[in-house]
Specification:
- With about 325 residues, this protein is mostly helical.
- The chain has a domain of about 210 residues.
- It is built from 13 helices and four strands.
- Strands 1-4 form a two-stranded antiparallel ribbon. The protein has a two-stranded antiparallel sheet with strand order 2-3.
- α4 packs antiparallel against α9.
- About 45% of the residues are buried.
- The model has no long low-confidence stretch (mean pLDDT about 85).
């Protein structure tokens, strides 16, 4: 019976029901400031979700992307505060992220370390290296400046918050990349069956390398939106459970962990649902631990449903997911 269900539509209906329920039952949910906060938080989660989706569609995962986001952007702010030209600091931050992506991709594609272990270890290395040699304090504040760059996360264009525009642009580029570029189609082929993809001539290892570089670059974009929205970057964010929220929006939206399925639209649907849920729980004044329990149960349920809707093939059974 479950095979006939469309997870994307189910999640969309649940999101609408939650929104209506919270709007009726929670005072302040429909307030302008709260909706703005919800949209801003959802947008940042969505940008990270787009990057994670590219990894999962290729039957991978990147647990280091939050560390990459935090350390790259915090380092950028440190350099600007120390007098480095803004655009040089931005370029160096992206350069650092590209190196992280290359190392992740090399470990997964050439050393054949499972993605979940390679990126988990890399995330710890990135955070430890960053805190030891690049960033001295926990919170790095945005410098004062007139550049439009400092308003990326806080301004509006025609009444639309900039984070929403950033999310839309990242989603559009990712959708075009996955649908119309040769590398994007290769990502789906590798996700479906990497052995078959290699036999048919797909350069699997270079594509995996490019995949993780792209994820790292998207993480920096999300970090810039975060830092310019709240005028700082808190490095302790790398120690939070945000990466699980990112996985949650991707899996919940309908992108199967077995790879080769789904797209940007699934991320958008999952992001909206989780954004509404997190915002509602915050207004209900549920504690951090309680919220994590709810999110964990939802993530577990999403994985169970994903397993039923997208049965693992023989290759996955032999080598394990991600």
């Amino acid at each position: 019976m479950l095979k006939g269900l469309n997870q994307e539509r189910i999640v969309g209906v649940i999101a609408v029901l939650l929104f209506v329920g919270f709007a009726i039952g929670l005072p302040g949910f429909l307030g302008g400031a709260n909706i703005l906060s919800l949209i801003q938080n959802v947008s940042i989660l969505g940008i990270l979700g787009i990057g994670m989706a590219i990894g999962i569609i290729g039957r991978g995962i990147d647990l280091s992307m939050v560390s990459t986001m935090v350390i790259s952007v915090a380092w950028m702010l440190v350099m600007v505060n120390d007098g480095t030209h803004l655009w040089l600091a931005v370029a160096l931050a992206f350069g650092f992220a590209v190196i992280v992506g290359l190392v992740n991709g090399f470990l997964i594609a050439y050393v054949e370390v499972p993605a979940i272990f390679a990126t988990l270890a890399m995330g710890i290395v990135v955070y430890g290296f960053g805190k030891s040699f690049m960033i001295g304090q926990d919170v790095v504040y945005l410098p004062q400046g007139e550049s439009w760059f400092y308003r990326i996360g806080s301004g509006q264009v025609a009444g639309i918050p900039n984070p929403v525009i950033a999310f839309a642009l990242v989603a559009l580029v990712a959708a075009l990349f996955l649908k119309f570029t040769k590398v994007g189609r290769y990502v789906y082929a590798i996700g479906n069956n990497v052995a078959t993809a290699r036999i048919t001539g797909v350069p699997a290892r270079p594509v995996i390398l490019a995949q993780y570089v792209l994820i790292a670059v998207i993480a920096v974009v999300a970090g810039i939106v975060v830092a310019t929205a709240v005028t700082s970057m808190n490095t302790r964010l790398a120690l939070s459970t945000q990466v699980y929220d990112v996985i949650l929006v991707v899996v919940l939206g309908g992108i199967g962990l077995s790879g080769g399925k789904g797209g940007v639209r699934n991320v958008i649907v999952g992001t909206i649902l989780i954004g509404i849920l997190l915002n509602g729980m915050t207004i209900m004044n549920l504690g951090y631990t309680t919220q994590n329990i709810f999110k964990s149960v939802i993530l577990l349920a999403a994985i169970v449903i994903d397993t039923m809707l997208n049965p693992r093939d023989e290759q996955t059974a032999q080598h394990g997911d991600i």
